[in-house]
Design a protein that fits this description.
237 residues; alpha+beta; Jelly Rolls; Arc Repressor Mutant, subunit A; 4-stranded antiparallel β-sheet; 12 strands
Length: 237
């Protein structure tokens, strides 16, 4: 897989939800201290405990944020999609990165060195407020992970699908099923079984791409409601 024509740092910043609404002059300043980096599939961008030297915004590709649990099992914290940031711990602490980052596909990222970014944050209130919003979104994400850990597999899968980036109800390049299963702490078999139940209930479809058919119904399943299949549904659909 080859990356498409590279967008400029300013284009990537403007298209990111996290930095939407910044004044043009602030965007220009942010773009002015940006380093553009490319990583092939399978590359490790940084490792857990490694000294944090800056933070990233994903322009193209997918990045897996993960760490190894004491029992050796890999725990996926998040799958990063284009327009999302990661490694932001570098802005506010001198410790190492709390997790590792792996390129699941060829990736283009913007990187901001810690020292230059801190100087810009001190001088630009709009950017500082935007970063506070970023941290609030991150806290919400980790709170959702805690909620997921307490749910049954079917509810976990429903809530996770609702959280993925999408255009209308079609999910944008969802990660592989095995990766999604790791992200919510269940086996690949349990994940596939849950998808099958959601398809039989006509809450989602997988062809030609993963699509949410009934957002209200899926939300109810995520909240713990039971589902029943449609007895008139054609077999194999």
């Amino acid at each position: 897989m080859r990356l498409t024509e590279d967008p400029s740092p300013r284009e990537i910043i403007n298209q990111s939800f996290f930095f939407s609404g910044l004044p043009p002059e602030t965007t220009d300043q942010l773009a002015g201290i940006t380093l553009v980096k490319k990583y092939p599939k399978g590359s490790l961008l940084f490792s857990r405990g490694q000294k944090a030297t800056g933070f990233y915004l994903l322009g193209q590709g997918q990045i897996q944020i993960f760490f190894a649990e004491p029992n050796g099992r890999e725990r996926v914290v998040k799958i990063v999609h284009p327009g999302e940031i990661f490694g932001e711990a570098a802005i506010f602490q001198t410790k190492g990165y709390p997790a590792s980052a792996l390129a699941l596909s060829p990736a283009l990222v913007l990187f901001w060195p810690q020292r230059e970014l801190k100087a810009l944050l001190r001088s630009d209130g709009d950017l500082a407020l935007a970063m506070i919003g970023v941290l609030a979104n991150k806290l919400e994400h980790f709170a959702s992970l805690v909620r997921l850990s307490l749910k049954e597999a079917l509810a976990k899968v429903a809530e996770y699908l609702l959280s993925l980036p999408r255009e209308a109800d079609q999910l944008q390049t969802p990660p592989a099923k095995s990766v999604m299963a790791l992200a919510i702490g269940i086996t690949a078999e349990s994940f596939s079984r849950a998808l099958g139940q959601l398809k039989k209930a006509r809450l989602i479809a997988e062809a030609p791409q993963l699509t949410i058919l009934d957002r209200t119904g899926l939300s109810l399943v995520a909240a713990g409601a039971l589902i029943t299949t449609n007895p008139r549904e054609p077999s194999g659909s």
